[in-house]
Amino acid sequence: MTTYTTRNDVPDNEKWNLEDIYSDITKWENDLQLVEKMAEKLKQFDGAIQDGKSLYQYLKQREELSYTFNHVYAYSMLRVDEDTREASSQSLLDRAKGLSVKVSASTSFFMPYLLGLDKETLSSYIAEEEGLKYFEEDLYESFRYKPHVLSKDQEEVLSQLGEALSAPSTTFGMINNADIKFGDVTNDAGEKVQLTRGMYSKLIEDEDRDKRREAYKAYYQPYKELKNSIASTLSAAIKNNVTMAKIRKYPSALEKALFGDMVPKEVYENLIISTKENIAHLHRYSEIRKEKLQLDEIRQYDMSVPLVKGVKQVIPYEEAYETMIKAMAPLGEEYITILMEFKNARYIDVRETPGKRSGAYNLGIYGVHPFILLNHQDDLDSLFTLAHECGHGVHSKLSSQHQPQITARYSIFVAEVASTVNEILLINYLLDNEKDLELRKHLLNHFIDQFKGTFFTQVMFAEFEKITHELTEKGIPLNVEVFNQTYEALFREYNGDTVVFDEEVKFGWSRIPHFYRPFYVYKYATGFASAIHLATKILEGDKETLHTYLTFLKSGSSDYPLELLKKTGVDLTRPEPIENAMKKFGELIEEFSKL
Ligand SMILES: [Zn+2]
Fold first, then answer.
1. Domain 317-439+521-588 in the same topology as domain 7-149
2. 413, 527 in Cβ contact below 8 A?
3. From the CA of 110, how far away is ligand 1's center (Å)?
4. Cα(178) to centroid of ligand 1, in Å?
């Protein structure tokens, strides 16, 4: 694999080109000052919007501000991510953050003002000013929250409590990132060393079972020791959600969380019900794992090790890109042309270099183009990451091209559909073109594990959130015992009786940061199921689905997420999409067990 010790050594065509945003830093400075002036001007609208015309002028100027501000902010963020140690980049980001505070301060009057209007007044403003047509849907969308907004005094009190209310999440973050001390593991030289998260993710996949067990025990050790503190942060977070839902007059914490996407709670409930009705497939997978690993008993630390031993594929970046292009062929010429442009016009920052931000992401910038950060490792995982992030990237690109600024940005609910469709097309292509039996097994195993992680595990988490919030809504206090019992029961139900339990299993709830962002993970599962449906149809050559899918990618947030998906033939208010995904999982399991 090609490794680089400095960013300068990386060839230009494998680095993104930030000059597409600002060709030199003075232009960034100019825009920063421009945004400051615009913010000052916006402030003057406070108390001065009295008719359609002034409302329009405010919204228009706010949109212009947000366009330029996004460029200023994104540029500094991308610069920092190139090398987080670089002080000059960090100082740009600090200034952009300062600007962001000024921007919010200058526009914070608007929501209370808008929600203070009655609907008739708003409609009359819209009727008298032609320009407001463009903002109409957005205004009514904000208006939807009116029944959940309190009096001015009450809102003032709540906003002062804001920081205190987020304390459980902040505290858990401190415990989980700063204070946590994992136990010791034995390194290759036979010495005891303290486990890190990075080491854990490798060791839990180690072919040596003793190493896995040791890492597993060392990983859970601090969570067991801190169980009471973490139970208290999590129960406080849940209590806050339940209390805020009550204060803001939502029927439940779940419905408050789903309100923004306009997702009925039945969608959430159906997801869990349909998954559990078909959970036998996942139990079967636990059995297959036990067989293939030739173990007398299978435990939680045997659940991540690859079932096919010794496969190490080296896929250089150029080859990975070519493979991805071929695999996306079913999406048609328009899609492929955009993918070629990503590479040729330098949208992608490919290589890992010292100080560069870890992981991978896509950031779409309206008026410029998407930027994709990778830390490409020339292996199979990196190929999947490339296809995944390019899925987000093309979605950003198409939505920006086809939507006005106000609806160009897509919601998280639909985002993972675009990335997962690409991953499914990729796995399909690789399987079709791989003759080597061991590699085929390896590929299938990879996909099954991903299915499990992105779908089943997330549904299990979603159910855990639902149960614990409902207990709180019934006034039942949450503590270590309740969390342990709930989590263990769910783990057993999802993974089946083949799995032999260690004491650690029941502490699974204590290590999940996502639980501090309520009712969020279910979107991974619905996104995955939707993608399975779409990719299957597209691969079958269904022209209509291909057309509606491309339209979906061009739709940004021009409609509510469920409606956008419905137009592609995926109706998440019905059990079919989830059931079909389950069926697909069952087929994969069968195919794998036959190989
Ligand atoms: Zn993603």
1. no
2. yes
3. 32
4. 26
- CA atoms of 422 and 388, how far apart (whole Å): 6
> Distance, CA 416 to ligand 1 centroid (Å)?
5
> CB-based contacts of 573: which residues, under 8 Å, 6+ apart?
264, 266, 267, 270, 562
Burial 113-137 (b: 16+ CB within 10 A, else e): ebeebeeeebeebbeebeebebbee
Q: What is the pTM of this model?
A: 0.91
* CATH code reported for the domain at 168-309+453-516: 1.10.1370.20
Provide the annotated active-site residues.
389
Residue ranges per structural domain of the chain: 7-149, 168-309+453-516, 317-439+521-588
The model's pLDDT over 178-237, given as tens digits with 9 standing for 90+, comes to 899 999 999 989 999 999 988 898 899 999 999 999 999 999 999 999 999 999 999 999
Which fold would CATH assign to domain 7-149? Butyryl-CoA Dehydrogenase, subunit A; domain 3 (1.20.140)
Q: Would you state the structure tokens that stand for residue 165, as one six-digit string?
A: 């209310």
Q: Which tens digit of pLDDT belongs to each residue from 477-525?
A: 999 999 999 999 999 999 999 999 999 999 999 999 999 999 999 999 9
Ligand 1 center to 419 CA (angstroms): 6
Domain 317-439+521-588 fold is Neurolysin; domain 3 (1.10.1370)
Query: CA 510 to CA 41: how far, in whole Å?
Result: 48
pLDDT given for residue 67 in this prediction: 98
**Side chain identity at 6, as an amino acid letter?**
T
Count of residues making up the chain: 595
Instruction: For the beta carbon of residue 424, count every other beta carbon within 10 angstroms.
Output: 23
Q: Which residues contact 550 (CB under 8 A, 6 or more apart)?
A: 331, 332, 334, 335, 398
Ligand 1 geometric centre to CA of 429 (Å)? 20
On the question of pLDDT at 156 being above 90, the answer is no
- If you measure from the C-alpha of residue 531 to the centroid of ligand 1, how many angstroms do you get, rounded to a whole number? 12
Q: What is the pLDDT of residues 403-437, one digit of tens each?
A: 999 999 999 999 999 999 999 999 999 999 999 99
pLDDT for 161 equals: 87
